[in-house]
Amino acid sequence: MRGSALKCDLREANQLRSAAAQAIRQLGKINLLVNNAGFYQTRSFDEISAEEWDQAFAVNVRGTFLMTQACAESLRQTKGRVVNIGSLGGIRPWAAHVHYCASKAATHMLTQASAKALAPEVKVNCIAPGMIDQGEVELGEMRERFAEKTPMKRNGSAADVAQAVLFFATCPDFITGQILTVDGGLALA
Asked: DSSP secondary structure string, 125-188?
């Protein structure tokens, strides 16, 4: 299996359509689309600007929708799959991330609505990661707090998310419209 990673600004509809067309030209077809881009920002409720709100939705929801739409015909032909990356923040409210949480909740609903709209040919699912440790030095104390609150007593890794993507890429065709929380049980805390 071959893949393609293309750079584009998800806020620009023309760039999204161009990137999708380029991927189809390079690969000949699309079997799997992973919508993995995300805008994440910490802001108190009173400090979120209209521009920051719009940016969260432009990247996390609009970009995901437009890329899926641009790839839909190729995905229908291959009976392909879409895996969106949502967030535990789309399930659990975080006061310092209102715009992020709202946009990821919209990503979850977009997943379910798209699963109905593109069925039966295309399967659309979503992964909702919890705290994923990417080694950010500035998050040291917060990473430790999250690991302690998580029943598995650790934060997630990129490999945990990748394995969940692989699951949806290879799971039975009868699975669509699902949101899989990959959080070590953090949502249970």
From this structure: EEEEE--B----GGGHHHHHHHHHHSTTSS-B-HHHHHHHHHHHHHS-TT--S-EEEESTTGGG
Please report, in tens digits, the pLDDT of each residue of the chain (189 residues total).
677 778 889 889 999 999 999 999 999 999 999 999 899 999 999 999 999 999 999 999 999 999 999 999 999 999 999 999 999 999 999 999 999 999 999 999 999 999 999 999 999 999 999 988 877 656 667 788 888 988 889 988 999 999 999 999 999 999 999 999 999 999 987
Cα three-residue angle 88-166-60, rounded to 5 degrees: 40
- What residues are labeled active site? 100
Taking the model in full, what pTM does it have?
Answer: 0.93
* Contacts with 71 (C-beta within 8 Å, 6 or more apart), sequence order: 20, 23, 24, 30, 33, 82
Per the omega criterion (within 30 degrees of 0), is the bond before 120 cis? yes
